[in-house]
Design a protein that fits this description.
- Strand 1, helix 1 and strand 2 form a beta-alpha-beta unit.
- By secondary structure, the protein is an alpha/beta fold.
- Bound molecules: nicotinamide-adenine-dinucleotide (NAD) and uridine-5'-diphosphate.
């Protein structure tokens, strides 16, 4: 296999850190770039002694120059509480980050993959969501800094490909969970597991009937790597997610069952513009990438619970 030099932006985050490790294990050289807004050194500290791993503190809203073969552009906070904390910065990260990384890819002739999102479909009016669906996004709502930022990034990627022949790949990631998520990230899987492990109340926003389709991180990594390796004229966007759909209430009960928690479920207000349902149609990924998810919810949750339990054993005050 050809050893490649790979840049991972957002490499200290949940998915990015897992990707760095996977790429190193696959025999590549990895440069991890992050500004540590939501990422943590703890996610990558075990990689620092590897001579093929390099760590750079940098913000993607500023230009950056390096020589690499491939770029995975993941830099962007993904949890609603974090991306809404500084909405303008979130939009800048998506849009200016895309411009800077695409400019770099153009200059050095690197292939570049964009971590887009199911959020480009907004609160979808068709179900399950196919890549040809244009979405239903409120451009001025609470989630718009993220959703519209990611939509604009897709536009930039497609046009750098059309106008400048940059080799691009766009994946639309559906809710992904697993080890290296920040325990206080605010997303539903980490919230419920941390609450259950501490026997605290499980916070369901709204009536819990909204649905999500949860993908374990290892399946996402496989999808990303297959997409990067796919034929040049397949740019995507392609959905990468697990089509098994659960209500948030079902997720809460599953987490309680798997942790034997004494937690009780409490209701909290539903945030505005919270999508009612989400499920990927993955026919395109199956056809083009011969990819489908292998790890189902119970197995993935069990691995993730073990991870968070380990964190709590080291630091019970978490
Ligand atoms: P995360 O918040 O754990 O990781 C994002 C990383 O980007 C962090 O390390 C953060 O510090 C870094 N970052 C943020 N702004 C930056 C900037 N301006 N410059 C440099 N680094 C910056 O989130 P994640 O779940 O690992 O998500 C990774 C990518 O995948 C994101 O682009 C996200 O939008 C996308 N995605 C994730 C999911 C999911 O369910 N995890 C779903 C859809 C899309
Ligand atoms: N959610 C919840 N309790 C929590 C965190 C989230 O009920 O403690 C709900 C949230 O309202 C949404 C779903 O779980 O309907 C998924 O939320 P998350 O923030 O993980 O991701 P989203 O898919 O909304 O971006």
């Amino acid at each position: 296999m050809l050893k490649k030099k790979v840049l991972v932006t957002g490499g200290a985050g949940f998915v990015g850190s897992q990707l760095c490790e996977r790429l190193l294990n696959d025999g590549h050289e990895v440069v991890c770039l992050d500004n540590y807004f939501t990422g943590q050194k703890a996610n990558i500290v075990h990689l620092i002694d590897n001579p093929y791993f390099e760590l750079i503190r940098h913000d993607v809203t500023m230009p950056f120059f390096i020589e690499v073969d491939e770029i995975y552009n993941l830099a962007c906070p993904a949890s609603p509480i974090h991306y809404q904390y500084n909405a303008i910065k979130t939009m800048k990260t998506s849009v200016m980050g895309a411009v800077n990384m695409l400019g770099l890819a153009k200059r050095i002739k690197a292939k570049i993959l964009q971590a887009s999102t199911s959020e480009v479909y907004g609160d979808p009016q068709i179900h399950p969501q196919v890549e040809t669906y244009w979405g239903h996004v409120n451009p001025i709502g609470e989630r718009s800094c993220y959703d519209e930022g990611k939509r604009a990034a897709e536009t930039l990627f497609i046009n750098y490909n059309k106008q400048n022949d940059v080799k691009i790949k766009i994946i639309r990631i559906f809710n992904t969970y697993g080890p290296n998520m920040h325990p206080h990230d605010g997303r539903v899987v980490s919230n419920f597991i941390m609450q259950a492990l501490k026997n605290e109340d499980i916070t369901i926003y709204g009536d819990g009937q909204q649905t999500r389709s949860f993908q374990y991180v290892d399946d996402l990594l496989e999808g990303m790597i297959r997409m990067m390796a796919s034929r040049d004229d397949f740019t995507g966007p392609v959905n990468i997610g697990n089509p098994n759909e659960f209500t948030i209430l079902e997720l809460a009960n599953k987490v309680i069952e798997l942790t034997n928690a004494k937690s009780k479920i409490i209701r909290m207000p539903l945030p505005s513009d919270d999508p009612m349902q989400r499920q990927p149609n993955i026919d395109l990924a199956k056809k083009e990438l011969d990819w489908s998810p292998k790890i189902q919810l119970e197995e993935g949750l069990t691995k993730t619970i073990t991870y968070f339990d380990g964190l709590l054993k080291v630091n019970p005050a978490l």
